Amino acid sequence: MxxxxxLSGVPAMPNGPQYNFxxxxxxxxxxxxxxxxxxxxxxxxxxxxxxxxLGQQSQQEVDRYDxxxxxxxxxxxAPQPVVSIAAGPVVKNPTGGTLRVCWVVTKGPGAATxxxxxxxxxxxxxxxxxxxxxxxxxxxxxxxxxxxxxxxTLWALNASGVPFVYHQSSQSWTxxxxxxxxxxxxxxxxxxxxxxxxxxxxxxxxQAYRFNGTGFxxxxxxxxxxxxxxxxxxxxxxxxxxxxxxxxETRPSNPGTWNVVPDASQPAGVAVxxxxxxxKYRSAVVSRANDDSWVLNYGVADQPATGFPSMNAYQTTGxxxxxxxxxxxxxxxxxxxxxxxxxxxxxxxxxxxxSGLSRPSGVPQVYWxxxxxxxxxxxxxxxxxxGVYQVFQNINSLNLKIEAQASLQxxxxxxxxxxxxxxxxxxxxxxxxxxxxxxxxxIAAAFSGSYAIVAGAIAAGxxxxxxxxTGGDPDQQIKLKFNQLDxxxxxxxxxxxxxxxxxxxxxxxxxGRTFAVGDNVVKGxxxxxxxxxxxxANQTVNGFKSYMFQSLMPLKYSxxxxxxxxxxxxxxxxxxxxxxxxxxxxxxxxxxxxxxxYVIHDKNSSDDLxxxxxxxxxxxxxxxxxxxxxxxxxxxxxxxxxxxxxxMPVTVVNG
Length: 655
Fold this sequence. Notes:
The protein has 655 residues and is α+β, with helices and mostly antiparallel strands. It is 27% helix and 29% strand. Strand 7 and strand 8 form a beta hairpin. 44% of the residues are buried.
């Protein structure tokens, strides 16, 4: 993970607010990340917030990860270790704004447990106590989702595997029937989407069971030989599963069948220890063994096809009438043209033509222009198809502007580091994933509203392109010649736009995918104003500079760390004062103060700081680097001169 996070404070690649176009395992930011080996529970809200509970004596807390912006934040320091956590819906705050809802179980001395309700609004967190289970039975797990209650639906599982549902109005619990299932894990997406992992009928292999109102019934369509380890239900009717052999599958409400999530981007050797999902498009994964965490995006372009809505006889007649009025060739329908980019300009004319069509004879008005009418449906489809094309045109235009910005910043950094000549065949180590993460995160951090989705929109194509360029591991450092860097960046942008072309065609090939993207564009949620690509691309400057400086500075410079440097020696140094960073350590018995002196100089020069140790980087170059590191000047100096985050090799000289 350190390979990706070379600069302190750089978040992970942002995600779209609802989904990403492609499937990816997006590693969560390591900045302020909790110790994952201490994580005992995980939950994911409908807003893509990832909640984690820590249950070690050294860390008893609840933290939240914003998967859209890619940043961690602490939420609550718990009085006892956290044993279970569940995310409720995002609800209106009576005093304005919204409340994030999280249910947390803490465990005190012995077997005693306490259920807590966390209500978060901005930086404010209110903690309420929830009545315990009947007989004060220990709580093994809570599970929550959407529902009629103010804070959604809450279930709990006691230590004996008995489920209960909570009534918020009366603050009481009701025991629920199991149907003879021995439950080991409970998950709730909504009041009508409740699942469990358990065993029944004498079997010792855990399988998936769904609550049907009178008990839990086995879902035989998911039948892994070694059983099911984890389930996570969501409010849109989906349920995610992790089988005993580490395969991730989902069952969306439409089409209602299990599908294996494409694993091409799954990091090798990852054991999924904890899983929590927010929708059919997104889940969160923690691997304690790997000490790592991911946002798993099941891309909209990879979702199982749902097809167009079925039509009755009247709608079929109306559809044929529409196609005849458009003058399409025999056997073709307008739906056949949705994936044909050459037909895009014709769609606007078709929309106008269809809008002006009167109801054909024999077709009732309700099935023509009513809410479920075929004319209404086709007009919606055209607008959504146009929206898909529009958003990908915007993405590709922005990517080209980002490529131009990257090239410009590379030239700027080359000039600052003074490596324009004589270094063409020098080999550099480059973290392409880190660089593009930092660059795109600049867009996410700078804008809000409709602009906020831009970073997520371009992320999928760039992730795939970087993965291809690094042999399948975006976090892997690659070696390349200095004079190949500009071309490599161009290759990534070209590959990203090719990947986007594939996403676009896959989305347009199915109405369910087209509607998911196009409807958000039509509503203005997944779009940004035309002509703003240059403004957006400008926000990538800092990210590109950061990683270009880190890659190019070691070509020419190294750091000398002069240990036990005595302060009276400052007057004898042959080093400009702007290039000195001194860390006091102590005082000798003779009263002379000493410490460690850091100096950046040409790596081929003498390490004797008193006799011609230059040349040195210019004052303006160091100021530029301080700017991209961020924080105060003192903080930036400390990070740069001490070699923190791998800036340059450090040579220690003893005083």
